[in-house]
Amino acid sequence: MMQRLVSSGAASSSAGSGAGAATGSYNSLALVLLSLASVISSGSSFSFSRNLHDVEQDVAEDASLYSQEMRLSAPEITQQKQSQQQQQLERYVSIRSSPSSYISVPAGHRLELKCEVDGSPPPKVYWIKGENPERQVEQLERESVGELSYTAISRELSKLVIDCVTPQDQGLVHCVGLSGDKMVISQPTVLNVQGGNVSLSSRPECQKGGASAPPVITRHRPIYFSEMGSTVELPCEASGKPRPHVYWLDGEGNPLMDPRFAVQPDGNLLISNIRWQDMDGYKCIAKSPLGETEAVTFLYPAAKNISTIAVRLG
Fold it and tell me: What positions does the domain Ig-like occupy (predicted)?
């Protein structure tokens, strides 16, 4: 049985409702997750240090180098099954942002909606039209193939793209986040389609087969925390006409040559046995003859044997 939450779509209220389910070590990890995601999205630079003493000395010498310092206490690793089970129960899901409550679009035009969901384990995002979003998601889950499930925290960014809006698209649209047995549903977006009687045959994107369209990355995870030694899957789904080619580069723009890194047929990046050295911002690039676009996933391997990690923001 899934636990359902309803989100207002605002970052502050939705984060509060979801974070209450995360306890212990995940509270600290979630705070770092949200802070780092904001830094990355704003384009700020950042660097990491394993030596807290060195960081504190640097701050004392020149406080202007740092806008913020955060400490993350890694969870104590034990062999007790009770402790392992407790970690598995520390789950949460919350909607960070979702579309506005009312959107009006002329028939035949293009529509792009965005939704961001935080969660542990890594969440999935569904776009649901009409009534009973919870029931529709449960049906989709019964028909879907399960993804990797492990101790991790991530943010998922999903886009709903409609190249040609028609009167049939009018109605309610929900963003639904799913993490384990927890579900969060945004407040509905009322989609109003203007000029429903206008002929759409003159618009190439509305004809059978549609018109050419540049690539758009419709799903990726901007930030991802997972324990060292785990296998992670970084999604990157893209749409466009013709269908774009998806490939990955490291933070410096180099191809991924390590055999532990494998790009799947669907464009997702699978990384086996992640290490501390794998910390990086990995670029997913979707390219077609009409152009290219990219999205970055920052991967943070949470070190079990390091008691303190200092994050420098500049």
Answer: 75-175, 214-297
Q: What single-letter DSSP state applies at residue 306?
A: -
Q: Is residue 71 within a helix (H) or strand (E), and if so which, with residue range? A: strand 69-73
Helices (H), 76-220: 81-89, 133-143
| Span 128-181, pLDDT tens digits | 999 999 999 998 888 766 555 557 899 999 999 998 898 999 999 999 999 988
Element (DSSP H or E) covering residue 309: strand 308-313
How many Cβ atoms from other residues are within 10 Å of residue 57's Cβ?
10
- What pTM does this model have? 0.71
Nearest-angstrom CA–CA distance, 279 and 298 = 7
SS3 275: coil
Cα dihedral 96, 100, 105, 109 in deg (nearest 10): -10
SS3 content of the chain, % helix, strand, coil (to 5): 20, 45, 35
Query: What's the domain count of the chain?
Result: 2
Bridge partners of 94, per DSSP, are 118
Collect all residues with Cβ–Cβ distance below 8 Å to 257 and sequence separation of at least 6: none
Within-domain flag for 20 = no
The residues, any chain, with a CB within 8 Å of residue 44's CB and separated by 6 or more, are 313, 314
Which CATH number fits the domain that encloses residue 130? 2.60.40.10
